[in-house]
Amino acid sequence: MVIRYISSLKNALKTNSAYIDGVLIVRRKKGWSKMTKEEQGEYTALVELFNADKELSMYADQLFYALGKYPELNKALKAGTLDNALAAKVFGKKINTTLDDYIKRTEDMIKGAESGKYTYTADDIYALLEELAEEGLPELIKDRKSLNMVVNPHGGSIDDAGRLDVFIDAVDRMRHSDAAVLSLGSPATRTDPILFNFRRLLTHLDNLPEAQVKKVKWSTTADDLDFWNGEDVPGFVDPSKNDYGLTLDRRFFSADDVVREARYEPTKAANFDFVMKGDDWPLPRKTGKTPKFEVEDIVSEGKNRLAILEQEKIALEGRIAQGQGYTKSGERQLEQEGMAMMEEAQDALDEVLTEIELLKMNGTTKKQGGGFIDSPLYLRDY
């Protein structure tokens, strides 16, 4: 029979984590030579008490895990300017750049397949999605936890809206959605549904509903003492190791911090060939003001807009059918989710059908009451 002994440091952290973290932060911030005698004494006492098995140094590695990868935050800590606002800004940018990077890698695969230089298929793009779920997102989860430990020892989060939680939930939904996956072995094309959903997800993360922003989060906050190693592990672990079982649990926990209104539902990609000019890609991310187009350009895109609407119509009809299936599951929670899914999809479908009817009648993309819209709808809808 194996008896597990909880380390003395883990026990101490349950009641004195703010003090212990504070001593370690002073040590990293000032360096030994700039610490006062009192500060040196406090740090030395911690080492003598808790570092016999290097557990204090391993805990410090967990505490400062993110700072080793965010030089600007590490510099701010040493300058005494690191706060929640700065950490939130830098971490929010990291979420965006992570998704941007996977979009770029997906695009590069498709370009390679188009040129004939490589034989990338939908399988290879799906492998990128799996890599994001199993490697990219767990790293972001650990970064957020580490920064919360340093910046918010008394509660709160640098990701107060839970953008990362929505990101994680969306990727898991994409992995298990027929809408986001092409048939195995299909050629890699610019209308790949994973690329399409990656692009839509960028905008989704920037426009989360108020209910998500206001929800009280509990995932990976500073007071989650068992985050790195679990409650059954007696000591401390190397934070750089990717423990699949642990990170899988953390992804599930993150999903609990996502309200229904903020969930990203994957959809099938439409044919976006008409927006491609040279090396441009469909659905470019909006930055600043919506670009202006000449009236002639807008009118000429009426037929293309109609093609998109027909694809949206098919996708929304599929959502309604999926919701109907949920309502017949016999599980109350799933039935309620199905009803909400059907209502949302039906509202969106009504708008699509109305626009389709107007386009077929007019043959142009006009505003109601006369006048042309100031930009193509495909640039404004996502």
Share of helical residues? 55-70%
What general form does the structure show? elongated
| Unreliably modeled segments | 271-278, 283-300, 364-382
Q: How far is the first residue's CA from the last residue's CA?
A: 58 Å
Q: Structural class from helices and strands?
A: mainly alpha
Work out the radius of gyration: 25 Å
How many structural units, i.e. domains? 3
Please give the largest β-sheet.
Answer: none
> What is the average per-residue confidence, as pLDDT, rounded to a whole number?
79
Percent of sequence in beta strands = under 5%
Q: Number of DSSP helices?
A: 14
Tell me the series of helices and strands, N- to C-terminal: HHHHHHHHHHHHHH
- Would you count the extended β strands for me? 0
Explain what this protein looks like in three dimensions.
The protein is mainly alpha-helical and 382 residues long. It has 3 domains: 8-63, no CATH class; 83-262, no CATH class; 291-380. The chain has 14 helices and no strands. It has helices at 8-30, 37-50, 55-63, 71-79, 84-115, 122-151, 163-175, 193-205, 210-214, 244-255, 295-300, 302-327, 332-362, 377-380. Helix 6 (122-151) crosses helix 10 and helix 7 (163-175) runs antiparallel to helix 8 (193-205). The protein is elongated, with a radius of gyration of 25 Å. The termini are far apart. The relative contact order is 0.09.
List keywords for this structure.
382 residues, mainly alpha, 59% helix, disordered C terminus
Brief summary of the model shown:
This protein has helices at residues 8-30, 37-50, 55-63, 71-79, 84-115, 122-151, 163-175, 193-205, 210-214, 244-255, 295-300, 302-327, 332-362, 377-380. The longest helix is centred in the N-terminal third of the chain and has 32 residues, at 84-115. It has 3 domains: 8-63, no CATH class; 83-262, no CATH class; 291-380.
